[in-house]
Amino acid sequence: MSRLFGSVRARATLGAVLVVAVALVAAGTAVVLSLRSNLIGEAGTEAERSARAVAAELAARTPYDRLSGLDTEGRPVQIVDEDGRLVAGSEDLERITGTTTAEVTPGPSASAAMADDDPDDSGDDDFRDDDARDADDDDSGESLEAGEIARDSTFTNGSATIDGDNQDYRFASVEVRTPDRGRLTVHAGAPLAAEQSAVRTALTGMLIGLPVLLGVVAGVTWLVTGRALRPVEGIRREMAAITASEDLARRVPEPATHDEIARLARTTNATLTALEASVERQRRFVADASHELRSPIASLRTQLEVAAAHPELLDLDGAVEDTVRLQQLAADLLLLARLDAGERPADAPVDLAALAREEAAGRPAVTVHAEPAEITGSRGQLGRVLANLLDNARRHARERVTVTVRREGAWAVLGVADDGEGVAEADRERIFERFVRLDAARSRDDGGAGLGLAIARNVAVRHGGTLTAGAAPAGGALFELRLPLARSG
User: For 278-289, what is each residue's pLDDT tens digit?
Assistant: First the structure.
C-alpha cells in the first residue's frame, strides 16, 4: 500500500478524487437543502392559503358545520378558540401534532354552539358583537376588528392521521376576529410527502451517482497522469541504464512537447553533456599530469641510478633542477585541484598596484605603471596569477615587459604586455587550456608544463573577473586581468 501511494500517479489520482468528492458532497448538500427549503416553503404557502380560506368563511359568520375548508380530503384543519379549546376540525381526523392542541373532536360546548349557530337568527348579533369586542380588549396579540383576519401567519411542522393515513404536514396558523364567536385561530396543514419524496430521490441519485462519478474521475486522472508521466519513466530508465553502463555519451529521450517534462529532459541532457565534458577533462588532466610528471621523475631516477653506480658522474645541479620542476608541477596540480573543487577565495583587501610592484621587483626589464586600485580576494592566488603572467611574458619578450594597473568604472584592469612575436588570434583562447604549449614554446625546460595560464584564468574567474589575451601596442602579446573594485564603505 505504501509503495502504491508512493507514486506521483497514485497521489495525483487520490488528490483529484478527494477534491471532486468534497466538491460534490458540498454541492449536493446545498442542492438538497435548497430543494427541501423550497418545497417546505411551497407546502407552507399552500397551508396558509387553506387556513386563510377558512378564516375568511369564519369572518363571514359561516357556521362551523358549513365550512368548506373542513371537508378538504387529506388536509387537517383545526379551529381553536381563545381558551385553546377545539371548536371545529376536519372530518376523520384521528391524531394531530404540531398545533396548539392535540384534540381532534370538539367538546360538548362547541357542539352546542354549532347547533345554536343559525344564520337566520340575527337578533342577538349586537349582543355577540359586544361580547366579542370585550374579549378582544383583553387579548395580547395583534389588535383585530370584527371580521378582520391577522396579516401574519405562523408555521410549524407536525403530523396527522386522517382516516388511518398518517403523514407529515406543514401547518399554518392564522388568527381571525369573528363578529359572533370572538377571536379564533385556524390551523391548516399541507402534506410534506412531495418534499420528502423529492429529497429521497435526490439523496438516492447522489448515493448512486457520486461513486460512479468518482470512479470516472479516478479512471480519467489515472490515465491522464500515466500518459503525462510516461516520458518521466523513459527518462528514469535511461538514467538507470547510463548509471549501470557508465556511458556518459548516452542521452535521455526528449518529448516533442513544450511542457515541464520536456524541459526536464533537455536540462538532464545538458547536465549529462556537462558531466561528460567534465569527466573527459579529468581524464585528459590525469593523462597529461602523468605524462608531465613522468619526464622529471624519469630524469631524476636516471641521474640517481648513474650516481649510485658512478658517484663521480652525479649531476647534482640537474637533479636539483628536476626536483624543483617536479615540486612546481605538483604545486600547480594541487592548486588546480583546489580550484576545481570550488574553493572560495579569501575576502581580504588587496592593492593591485602594490601587488604588481612587489611581483615585478627583482625581475629584469620589467616596467610598472600603476594607479591605486583596491580589490578583494586572495593575495596569494592573485600574486600567483601575476607571477605566471610575468614568467610567460619574460619567455616571449625581446627586450622589455610592461605592467599597467588602471581603473575603468567599477573594474580594476591589470595589463602585462611584452614586445615579442605575440599570440596568433586563433590561439588566444587555446593557450588557456591545460597542458597546452604553442609550437614556439614546446620545450619543457623553457616553456613549462602549460599550466600557468590555465591557473591564471581559473583564479580570475573565481574572483569574479576575466583574463583575456590580445595584441600589445608594441606588437607583442597583451594579457588583461579585469577584477571588480572593492566596494567603498
Answer: 888 778 777 777
Residue 375 has pLDDT above 90, yes or no: yes
Residue 4: per-residue pLDDT: 52
Q: Quick count: other Cβ atoms within 10 Å of Cβ 230?
A: 12
Query: What is the rounded distance in angstroms from the CA atom of residue 343 to the CA atom of residue 236?
Result: 33
165-178 and 348-351: which strand pairing?
A: unpaired
Do the strands 154-162 and 182-191 form a parallel or antiparallel pair, or are they unpaired?
unpaired
Cα–Cα distance, 157 to 69 (Å, whole number): 20
Domain residue extents for the chain: 1-245, 260-340, 348-484
Contact at 8 Å (CB) between 278 and 248?
no
Whole-number average pLDDT of the chain: 84
5-53 pLDDT tens trace = 567 888 888 999 999 999 999 999 999 999 999 999 999 999 999 999 9
Contacts of 271 (CB under 8 A, 6+ apart): none
- Cα Rg of the chain (Å, integer): 53
> Is residue 261 within 8 Å of residue 232, measured between CB atoms?
yes
* Calpha distance 177→191 (Å, rounded): 27
Burial 291-324 (b: 16+ CB within 10 A, else e): ebeebbeebbeebeeeeeeeeeeeeeeebeebee
Q: Is 183 helix (H, G, I), strand (E, B) or coil?
A: strand
pTM of full prediction above 0.70: no
Burial class (CB in 10 A: 0-12, 13-18, 19+), 83: exposed
3-state secondary structure of 384: helix
| CATH T-level fold of 348-484 | Heat Shock Protein 90 (3.30.565)
CATH of range 260-340; options 3.40.50.1010, 3.40.190.170, 1.10.287.130, 3.30.420.40: 1.10.287.130
Kindly write down the DSSP assignment for every residue of 264-316, as one continuous string. HHHHHHHHHHHHHHHHHHHHHHHHHHHHHHHHHHHHHHHHHHHHHH-GGG--H
SS (H, E, C) 17-51: HHHHHHHHHHHHHHHHHHHHHHHHHHHHHHHHHHH
Whole-number pLDDT of residue 283: 81
Return the C-alpha cell found at 416.
602585462
Q: Is the pLDDT of residue 86 over 70?
A: yes
Question: Which pLDDT does position 135 carry in this prediction?
Answer: 42
Which residues fall within 8 angstroms of residue 250, CB to CB, at 6 or more apart? 238, 241, 242, 272
Q: What is the mean pLDDT of residues 119-129?
A: 43
DSSP class of 90? -
Residue keyed to cell 573594485: 485
HSE-CB at 94 with a 13 A cutoff on CA atoms is 8
